[in-house]
Every structure is written in C-alpha cells, then in structure tokens.
Write a structure and sequence with these properties.
This protein is mostly beta strands. It is built from 1 helix and 29 strands. The longest helix has 13 residues.
C-alpha cells in the first residue's frame, strides 16, 4: 500500500499559504521566475499570458529553497523565498526564487491537467467515501503510520514531508482521485507545509475528521426550556457533534452515527453516552428512528458507506440496542433512510440510485425501485405515497395504483 513504503524524512518548511492570481499584490520575485521562463521558451512571457499561477512564501533551511540540485552543496543557512506554480502553454512550472531574487531554480515541470474529473467517480465502489471537507480540520489516525505529503495528488508526486500520527492539519483543496490505485487525495496545510496526502485505500482510512465525538461539556446542562416562538431568539449552541447521522430518539436522548462505524445513544442534557455499539466496519452514512407506539417498540436503522443496513430495537429499561436484522442489497453507500408511519416498512436510498423497501419485523426485502440514475439523497413516505429525490434534483413519487394492491 502507498502508505507502507520507506518514509523519507525532510525538514518542514514554514509558510504563509497559497495565494492565487486574485491577490492584489504580486510578489516581486515572480518577475525573476517569468524572466527564466521566457529564456527557456525563447520569447518574452508576460503575466497576462500565464493561464494560472499560485505562490507560497516560506523560510527554507538552505539556499536550495526546498529543491536541491544534483551535484550542488548547500550551507545550512535559513533562506527566505517563494515557490511559484506557473501554468503556461499547457505546462505547469514549479519555480523557487529567493526573496532578493539572486536564486532562481526551476524545480520541475508537469503537464497541466486539461480538466478536473469527478472524484470519486459515482459508479466506482472501489473508492472510499470521502470524509473530509475543504476548510475543516482533520488528523492522521492515531496509532497508524505517518502520512506522506506530495507536491501533486498521486503516488508519483514529489515527496515534501510527512504528517505524524495524531497530528492536526487544515484541508485546503480536494478531493482529487488517482485512478489506478483508487485513492482520494486532499491538499492540506500542516504547520505551514502544504501538499497532497492520501485519505486511505482498500477500505482503510488513514485520515479522519478532527471531531468524531461530542465536544465535552464541563457540567450537565440545566433542564432547557421548551423552544417556542416566544423564546426562539434565545436559542444558542449547547455543544457540537461531528456525525454522519443524528436523530432524536425521544425528548431527551438522540442517536448518533460516527465515521468509525459506531452508533451511540446520547443524553443531551447530561452529555452522557448511554449506549454505544460497533454497528458497522465502515462510516455510518445515515440513521433513522421509528416508534411503534402500539407495541411500545422503538426501532433504529443504521446504514454504512459499504451499503449495509442494520435494524435494531431499543430496550426501554437500559437503552441497550438489540440487532434484529442485517439488510443487504445496495451496491454502494446508503444515503437515506426513513420508517413508515406504522413502522412496518423501512425505505432506503443509495448512491447506486435505487430505492428499496424492507419489512421491519425481519428485514425481508420487499421491493426495489429503479427510477433514478443518480445517487438518492432523500426519501419520505406518507400513508399512500413515497417520495425520493436524487442529487440532480429529480424527484419521483411512488404509489400503488387503484386495482393493483396485493
């Protein structure tokens, strides 16, 4: 696997971040990079002719500016400089220029991508379901190996450094996919070092969102007031939770599905975890709660990124979760769940575009509805109709016409 390779150790650079061509102030050292580029292509290249450019200002450990040249010796003298990525005539040029413009290094070139393909491809289940997002904090999974940083998304990218286990970074761009090894890549800023790092492979996540559990509260929350129109302006955050599904079980407890596959029942007034089960081996992507008042049974349905659905009932005395059935049929992540009003049916929708109906009592599959060509993102049911909506906005209403009921 990509992460299980010989690790290269390098000094980390201290930087201020990537700035795009929309910045009002153009760094003067950019002129030195353009002059060198002009000499290489045999004509003057002006900034207006450049298709795209970004820069990273850093303090480098030597005059090599992070790009040592073969056969050249360098003193260990901290040197300020810039990295410019310039796209011109279909080629990306990686330039390093010192602050005083006395050092200009062309570190490397690469063909500029013609376009950015969809990542991950919606019809390829070999990719992990992405769990990160631009602007969010994340970390390398504690206890795992360090994650490598590269200058481009892909295992062929130049090594820039590494992120140790448990260390936090900020996501700046992504996702990008490498198509041969089925890996999703994110551009991250780790202590000023900016590069691309892999999220995982073959069902194994190497990165995780920073907050996977409830933010601790120092004391129990006093009994809150009922929320009405008269006090709506006083509503405020009690605490936060990072979850892939969260619904109220009753007026005091709610159920949370997490990225590590666990499902927890939380008492939000005391911030206490009443029960937690390892419901899935992949991230929980959806949860649903159904109450059969006549039979005094509360049901929970949980679904995973692998397409698995599990049905549970909740013991009212100690909130223990007892698995009723495991439902299989979806070929990729299940993204929507809901119970019928009578709690005899469970309706699911998935990335595979299918809507499926299940018998709640034993998990028997009852029907598969195949009208969508894009991932289903929402399902709802009334006494006489089912509504499903996919990621393109297409909404289908389903029902049993008169005379066709079984």
């Amino acid at each position: 696997m990509l992460k299980r390779v010989l690790l290269f150790f390098m000094l980390l650079l201290l930087g201020t971040g990537i700035v795009s061509t929309l910045a009002q102030d153009t760094p003067a050292p950019l002129n030195a990079a353009l002059a060198d580029l002009s000499a290489r292509v045999g004509r003057t290249v002006s900034l207006s002719e450049v298709e795209k450019w970004t820069f990273l200002q850093s303090s480098y450990p030597s005059p090599a500016l992070g790009c040592p040249q073969p056969g050249v010796s360098y003193l260990d003298v901290v040197t300020g400089g810039f990295q410019f990525i310039i796209t011109f005539a279909g080629t990306e040029y990686d330039y390093r220029v010192s602050n005083d413009q006395s050092i200009v290094i062309l570190c490397g070139t690469a063909p500029a991508p013609a376009s950015t393909p969809v990542c991950p491809p919606p019809d390829d289940p070999a990719y992990l379901l992405p769990r990160l997002s631009i602007g969010a904090q994340a970390r390398v999974v504690a206890g795992d190996l360090p994650n490598l940083l590269r200058d481009q998304p892909g295992s062929s990218g130049q090594l820039l450094g590494e992120i140790p286990p448990g260390q936090v970074f900020v996501v700046q761009d992504g996702p990008r996919c490498s198509f041969l090894d089925k890996i999703i890549w994110w551009q991250v800023n780790f202590n000023g070092l900016i590069g691309w790092t892999a999220e995982g492979q073959d069902g194994d996540y190497w990165l995780e969102p920073l907050d996977l559990a409830l933010t601790p509260t120092p004391t129990a929350i006093p009994d809150p007031q009922p929320i009405r129109s008269s006090n709506a302006a006083a509503v405020q955050q009690l605490y936060s939770v990072e979850a892939f599904g969260a619904l109220f079980l009753n007026d005091r407890q709610f159920v949370v599905g997490a990225a590590d596959g666990t499902v927890s029942l939380i008492d939000y007034r005391t911030n206490a975890t009443l029960q937690q089960v390892q419901a899935h081996t992949a991230p929980v992507t959806s949860v649903a709660v159904g109450v059969n008042a006549a039979a005094f049974i509360t049901y929970i349905a949980t679904a995973s990124a692998e397409g698995q659905i599990r049905l549970w009932d909740v013991d009212a005395s100690d909130f223990a979760l007892r698995q009723i059935a495991e439902l299989t049929g979806h070929t990729s992540a299940v993204t929507a769940l809901t119970f019928s009003n009578r709690t005899d049916l469970l309706i699911s929708g998935g990335e595979d575009g299918s809507v499926r109906l299940w018998n709640v009592s034993d998990g028997t599959p009852l029907a598969t509805l195949g009208g969508h060509t894009a991932p289903v993102v929402n399902v709802a049911i009334s006494t006489t109709a089912i509504i499903s909506r996919d990621s393109t906005g297409r909404t289908i209403v389903w029902g049993v016409p008169t005379g066709l009921a079984g």
